[in-house]
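We close this part of the discussion by returning to an individual protein. Part of our work consisted of pairing the sequence of a single chain with a tokenised description of its backbone. The amino acid sequence and the backbone structure tokens for this protein are reproduced below.
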Amino acid sequence: MFKNFIRMFSYFIGFVLLAAAAFFLVYKLLNFNKVAMPSLTGKSIFEAQELLQPGGLSLVVEGEEYDTDIPKDHILKQDIPAGEKVKSGSEIKVITSKGVEMFSMPSFEGQVFEEAKLTLLNLGMNVGKVTSVHSDSVEEGVIIAQRPLPGNVQSSKVNFLVSLGPYDVSYLCPSFVKMTVDDARALAATLGIKLVEQEEGNVVIFQKPEAGATIQRDDSIEVTLGRRGGVWF
């Protein structure tokens, strides 16, 4: 009985050893002539070829893409991930970096903002941050400044400072009545209002709106002229 047990146990051990040997052999056959794929990202073409040469791998450059981090002519992507087993003699396809994309930025200062947007669209560029401010010297809707400045730049976005035109300024309308025409014109120019003259004469005999009414810069004041001395006034 004991001898039979020893015999069966020996057969079992022999079977296990034979199965392990067969498994090892199959594993070796399946992985025969395979090497681990090295990481090529960030490497130059020369460096990558040196890494691939021991495994009998070759490099194929399939294209280029812009990238802000990987220097120009260095590898950006590889089609087989690092660490994966590949057959010796395989071709590894990669994409190399073209470096940072540069844009030729035009000057937009002094242009109407809406027109600048169309120009950017045609150039494949984009409007960035737009800040609007009042300006006494730049008309409403016109670009005061831009960033980045004109020239070769890395960003395709442009930030703008755009004019809202002058601040609204309110006055209490002064009295033009009994002023000479020259004095009335000078006062209107100082206040930034328009004087609309009616009739003929050298003094103002009537105005609309009346003195004391609230007016704003660029408003129009209608004045009727007459002549001092009693002919017309």
Remarks:
- DSSP finds four helices and 15 strands in the chain.
- The chain has a mean pLDDT of 88.
